[in-house]
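REQUEST ID: PR-0412
SUBMITTED BY: lab tech R.K.
PRIORITY: routine
TASK: structure prediction, single protein chain
INPUT:
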Amino acid sequence: MADSATAINPKADGRRTFGFDVYNPFSPDFIHDPRPTWNRLLEDYPLAWHREMELWLVCPHDLAFEALRTPKFSMLIKDWEKAPPPVPEDQKTDFHRAAEFSLLAVPPAQHVRQRKLTQPAFSRAVMDQIELKIRDLFREVFDELADRKEIDVVTDVAERLPMMSIARMVGVPRAEEALFNEGLGYNLVRSTDPLRSDADRAAAIQGTLPGFKFLREHIAKRRAAKDVGDDFLGMLIKSEIDGDKLNDWEITALITALITAGADTVLDLYMGAAKTLLEHPDQYKMLRENPDLMENAVLEVLRYSIPGKVGPIPRFVSEDMEWGGQPMKKGELVMVAMSAAWSDPKRWDNPDKFDITRNQDGNIIFGAGPHFCIGLNLVKTQGKLFIEEFTRRFPNAELTGEMEYDYHHFNARRLKKLMVRTNI
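STATUS: complete
OUTPUT:
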């Protein structure tokens, strides 16, 4: 599709619209099985304005790819027509200051600079080091389940490992893990939940502050060390381009982004991997017999299990224009429905089939363009470790059929129970 914008009369309508009668991402029916809805949207409402949610929903793979790459859509919340007022300088906390240095909040030139400086920390070599550091965490957690006839993948494994892994890769001492995991991690995720009340979000922001204090002190201590090391945090500290380095706030913002985005994504990946592989025993057997398919299997789990309800990161229309055949107004909210794009039959052959041998070339599972997920290798590494350990421990595992969804999660079809019979 041509990447061109045409100015329009901002008062003109003529837009394709729909509502909760077509797409209600919070309904139990959708959460249990979103595919009929995605299929209908792809066919009848590929790009349309949701009346009740007041946002544009982008569904087809080609439009999603363009939306992720085009500068026509801003990622700065200040460009939203309903943007909250800025926090006064004298009321800003560590939470607000870290947010100002987020890759999602900085201007384009600063975004490019920060990505270049953070690249070494996400290299394959550093990810290999991280894999060695966190592999024993996976073994420890699964060791606790060694004699269990049934396990809950959610509470016994998935909810524990993501934050523990990030704490380990950042070098958080065991004695401080509770502060990092439960204080900073727990509250960061809840502070970004738009369905919570203002009071709840304010309480969550307040709850992050001890964790932020620890993290800032931890970074400063590592920076002052004689040898900052070659691990993830060490690479962030010493990364340099023409004398330019990341400051402590930029490093803090990156680590908190890993917590709010990376840990949450990986949590759903673990649940999706166990559920989807066990629902397809032929694929589970194939993967056990062909471990070289592991990376492809991780991508296919993410594509097929489609955990999202709406979209991962909001965008905002930068100017009145026509795009995708629809009239858009400056400041309107745009959500890219990645889950629909991953199910688009114009892009994927037989998209409703789970196939770990599927050709994944050209996928947008980790986004596209300037905001392509910098933590791609980290997600792949954690997915690989979970599936390797799960398949090794429970080669004959089966779903018991007992599972429950968290209907109140703001943007994920999040399971809160997934019972598995281990058959050991």
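NOTES: The radius of gyration is 22 Å.
REVIEWED BY: pending
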